[in-house]
Amino acid sequence: MKQKLLIAARLITFLLVVHYAGARLANFLVCRYMTEMPEWMHQTIRVVLDNTGNADIREPDDLSVIALLSTLVACWIAVAIALIVFYKISRQLVHRYARALR
Fold first, then answer.
1. Among residues 41, 24, 28, which one has the least CA distance to residue 79?
2. Cβ distance 42 to 66 under 8 Å?
3. Residue 43 and residue 54: Cα distance in Å, rounded?
4. Do 57 and 36 touch, CB atoms closer than 8 A?
5. Counted domains in the chain
6. How far is CA 97 from the centre of its chain?
7. Rounded distance, CA 58 to CA 33, Å?
8. Could you give the CA distance from residue 70 to residue 39 in angstroms, rounded to a whole number?
9. Left if phi > 0, otherwise alpha if psi is -120 to 50, otherwise beta: which for 34?
10. I need a surface site. Which of 32, 73, 74, 87 has the fewest CB within 10 A?
11. Residue by residue, what is the 3-state secondary structure of the chain?
12. pTM for the full model?
């Protein structure tokens, strides 16, 4: 039971950190660097909408919301990958240090 609680606590902590850090990163990127939607993102969203049968969503407001959501999801993915990599590296270092002390 204790092991399951520890796993649940780690998972909840991971999800909260990814959510918060990803939202902060997206906010930073949008406020600092994306004063207008980049042309490549605009064209990509249009192509994806056309190819998936959602060509009726062509309003500029809808495209900007989709661009913001895709930026947020990309930031969440980037933060999650970074956290997993840092967790594995720190875990290896701790195990290596613990073995050196024995």
1. 24
2. no
3. 14
4. no
5. 1
6. 31
7. 24
8. 14
9. beta
10. 32
11. CHHHHHHHHHHHHHHHHHHHHHHHHHHHHHHHHCCCCCHHHHHHHHHHHHHCCCCCCCCHHHHHHHHHHHHHHHHHHHHHHHHHHHHHHHHHHHHHHHHHHC
12. 0.83
CB atoms near residue 58 (< 10 Å): 11
Token output for 29: 């990127």
Angle between helices 2-33 and 60-101 (to 10 degrees): 130
Q: Kindly report, residue by residue over 32-80, the tens digit of the pLDDT.
A: 988 888 899 999 999 998 899 887 887 888 888 999 999 999 999 999 9
Phi, psi of 6 (to 5 degrees): -65, -40
